[in-house]
């Protein structure tokens, strides 16, 4: 039996952090197929509802980052998230503090989906919304990982990397949007990028 090389062991250790990218897409495909069965307006229904979920994610991302992750730690059990995020600011390249495992992200999704179901009153709509939210979440994880651990090759990714690293190294009171700066413009936490940082 062939021994595992150091490179293979390295990638095996890293891949376990990316479990969400293997777990959520198949789950979303099954849920989308199930939620759209028997609908005459299937494609329009999927597109509009799914994109609405992506839009909702932008507000979830911003709200969690600004009002939960950057909440002062006060020794209570619910300050676990601010503590972990503080550790991320101290150790920004530690993958364990960048990407959330499925055992953590999925339980958080459950109450979000339940709220969507109660608000819409429709199981199919709430499923497609949560799938859009999960897609936004995976994009967030990819952008966040790329900002700290990759050298981006596209103009968009270079901009997003610069934008997020300004939040880390210039001021953690602004630039809360990770996947888009537009949410910061809405809530007044956008600042123009310094001339030296513009791509």
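-> sequence recovered:
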């Amino acid at each position: 039996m062939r021994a595992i090389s150091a490179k293979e062991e390295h990638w095996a250790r890293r891949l376990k952090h990316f479990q969400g990218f293997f777990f959520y897409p198949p789950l979303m495909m099954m849920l989308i197929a199930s939620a759209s069965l028997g609908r005459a307006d299937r494609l329009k229904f999927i597109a509009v509802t799914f994109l609405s979920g992506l839009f909702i994610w932008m507000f979830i991302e911003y709200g969690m980052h600004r009002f939960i992750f950057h909440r002062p730690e006060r020794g209570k059990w619910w300050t676990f998230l601010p503590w972990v995020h503080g550790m991320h600011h101290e150790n920004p390249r530690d993958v364990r503090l960048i990407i959330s495992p499925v055992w953590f992200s999925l339980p958080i999704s459950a109450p979000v989906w339940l709220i969507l179901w109660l608000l819409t009153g429709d199981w199919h709509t709430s499923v497609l919304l949560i799938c859009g939210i999960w897609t936004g979440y995976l994009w967030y994880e990819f952008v966040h990982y790329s900002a700290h651990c990759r050298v981006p090759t596209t103009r968009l990714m270079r901009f997003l990397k610069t934008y997020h690293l300004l939040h880390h190294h210039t001021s953690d009171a602004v630039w809360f949007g990770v996947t888009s700066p537009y949410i910061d413009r809405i809530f007044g936490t956008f600042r123009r990028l310094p001339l030296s940082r513009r791509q």
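The helical segments are 6-15, 19-35, 42-69, 80-90, 102-120, 123-149, 155-169, 182-187.
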